[in-house]
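Write out the 3D structure for:
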Amino acid sequence: MIFWCRMFEVHRCLNLSKVLEKKSFFLFGPRQVGKTTFLRQAFPEARFYNLLESQTFRELSAQPELIRQRRKPGENLIVIDEVQRLPVLLDEAQGMIDSDRKLRFVFTGSSARKLRSGGANLLGGRAWVARMHPLVSPELKNTDLIRRLTWGSLPHVFFSADPEEELGSYVGTYLMEEVRAEGAVRSIESFSRFLPVAALANGEQINFTELGSDCQVPPRLVREYVQVLDDTLVARQLEPFQKTVKRKPVATAKLYLFDVGVANMLMKRGRVEPGGESFGRALEHQIYIELLAYLEYGRRADTPVNYWRSLSQMEVDFVVGESVGIEVKARIMTSQRDYKGLLALAEEVPLKRKIVVCQERERRRTDHGIEILPIADFFEELWGGGII
C-alpha cells in the first residue's frame, strides 16, 4: 500500500487486504506510526470512527449502538480508531459480526492495556491481530541510514525539515499524555524520572533494582513501569534463548523501545556517527525492530526472536527460531573475536545460518561458516525473504 507523507511517496510493507477477506482484525501500534493514514488510503470505502475526535467519542460513549444503527445497506467495513478509549464498542461489534458474516471491522489501538483489563479478550477469536511499526528499510529506499539511526523512523519525524524538534515534542508531550490517559501510574513525576533511565538501559538486560536506584523508585514500581511500557506498545521485552545445556544461559529479558529515535532522544544521545559505540547500539536496535516487523508483517509472529547469553558472557544478539543467529557489529573489518558467541551457540544448536552484520564493504563467508554481511545487504536479503 502506498501513502503520501510530507510530499514523499512511501510504500508500506503491511498488507492487510487478504486478512480482511477472511476476518476482522485489530491493528496495534504506537501513536503516529501511520495506522490511520494507512487505513484511510487502503480502505477509502470504509466508515471511520475516530475516537480521538471529541464529538465522536461523546456520541459513542453515550450510545454505543450508533455504530449499528448508522450502518448503511451494503456497508461492510467499519474502522474504529483508537478503540482502547472505548472498549464497550467491542461488545456491539461482536454482536454485529455474529449476525452478518460479510461484515468486517478494523480496530486500531495504541494500547492493549484497557482492552485486557476490560475483559474484551480481542473478541474471543473473532478478529485477528496485526501490528504496525515505524518505517522500515524497504519503505525508505535510498535514504540516509545515519538519519534513521539518529532520528528514528516515525513518519512525521523522519520526513520533517526539523526532526529534532518533532521528536522532542513527541517524547516530551505524547509519551506522558499517553501514560496519563491510561491512568496506569500513580505518580507521573516518578514515571518521568524512570523513562530516560529506561532508555539508557535500552538493549540491556533488565535489572529492576539498578533501574529503581537510578530513578529513585522501588524495584516493584519499576516492574509496574516496564509493564506499562509494554502495554502502551512503547517497548518490547526480548526474552533470552535458553535451550543450551553445556553453557548455561541467563534468564533475564532485555528491554527495547519501539523506535531508535525515541530511545536516542530520551537518553540525549545526539547524532549517531559511524564507528562509535552509539552507532553499534543504534544499529542493533534497528535490526531488532526490522526483524520483528518482517515477521509480523508476514503473519509469522509466532516465530520467536530471542537473544542468547551464557553465564560465562558468550553472547549472540539475536536468535530467530532455532535456525538463525545474528550478531551486530559496528566494525569496518571483523575477526573471529566478533563471532565467538555464534560459534559457541552453534556447538549446541544446529543453526542453519550464522550471520554477522557490520560495516564491511563486501559480503564474505569465513572458514568457520560465518556469513559477514554489509548492513545494506542484510536489510535487502531480510526483506527479500532470504534470511528467515
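Residues 1-7 have pLDDT under 50 and may be disordered.
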